[in-house]
Amino acid sequence: MSPNQHYLQFTDGTPFFWLGDTGWELFHRLNLTEANEYLSNRSLRGFNVIQAVILAEFDGLRKPNRNGDIPFYDLNPEKPNENYFLYVDSVIHLAKEKNLFMGLLPTWGDKVTQLWGEGPVVFNQSNAFNYGLFLGNRYKNEPNIIWILGGDRPAKNDSADWRPIWSAMAKGIKQGTNNNAIFSYHPWGGDYSTTQFMPDEKWLDVNMFQSGHGGGHDVPTWELVDRDRKILPIKPTLDGEPNYEDHPVNPWPTWNPANGYYDDYDVRKQCYRSVFAGACGVTYGHHSVWQFYSEREPVINFAKMYWQQAITRPGATQVGYLKKLMECRPMLNRIPDDNIIVSGQGTKEQHMVAFRAEDGSFGMVYLPIGKPITIDLSFIQQRQIHAWWFNPKNAAVIDIGKINRNKASQFTPPSNGIGNDWVLVLDEFNNTFSMP
């Protein structure tokens, strides 16, 4: 963790910006050649975390993977099928070759907390610990694993508490890895977060929420980040599942086609605003990719293209631009601060989010729609400020140039209106962003 505990870094102090992709059914629905195609594509676009589930959501205990193997004998977590896990090993090694971390879910949540889905529930505290110990021992020497428990389920509700089972699984993994493991937890959607279910769990290192797909456009993900950042003990947080690209809008309990699909613009708005609000990164998702929809698989929830086409959709490339933008300036000392926006911030779909460096060396503002904005520039320490526009759609840069440090200055983006989102960068550095 970074010195302020809000961000991630390697042990040598190198910052780590979490840019995840959602590949839930990776181990279940792809063969190794297909997995290589998918992972190569994601590495090329700048992703560094792949979120995938060992025990998959859609009948993952009884329906064989592409090699014809099921994970357990007799639905028993203490009777693992070696052939199944040899394939998991191979995919993890492929990811490592491509400098990708696996955001590895030991199981989808319906195997602990069914509530809905196929299940079946097979875990209790005893076998959850043993399964975790098995996984920890198996992968203790793999450097590219981030453990994610949960899987779209609450850790507790008014009638039941499943935290002891998850804690037992985490304890097993920790013991198996000699305590060399980092953990998050993927909760269900809405305004729920790990900070509500398990604020005091010592095994939990990174808080997570999912703003999801059922709340319509412009769910205030920035508010969820702000809430998590205020919870003690301080931990990094991120949106582990914002609206997926090409996912139906509000499809539950039934979908009205008039609502349409989320597009790359929706993705950019949610990702930028959560990161600028102080998240340690973000996870992108495409509706056809997470399920690896193909001619072999039944369509889930109105997916409209096969995964091989979906991996080239614009949102997947554009979130890579976000990562590059964050990496072009120091990341670990940024402070969310909408107070630098004097006028023009807006609400809902127009809501802008800003942050500044703790040392006053730079700041950025995300504008979800193009319109004039007035900024208080007093946070910059230098008398002259370098200003530039960054286009999240294509990573193009428009240099504004040097401006004098006045308390308030107005900036007008190069294009206006809905669909024209921009980032305003203000700093004392002389260089602008450039793609490698």
From TrEMBL:
Matching Gene3D superfamilies: Glycosidases (3.20.20.80)
Annotated InterPro entries: Apiosidase-like_cat_dom, Collagen-bd_put, GH
Domain Putative collagen-binding: 335-427
Pfam families named in the record: Apiosidase (PF13204), Collagen_bind_2 (PF12904)
Domain Apiosidase-like catalytic: 2-332
UniProt-listed SUPFAM superfamilies: (Trans)glycosidases (SSF51445)
Name this protein carries in UniProt: DUF4038 domain-containing protein
Organism: Limnovirga soli
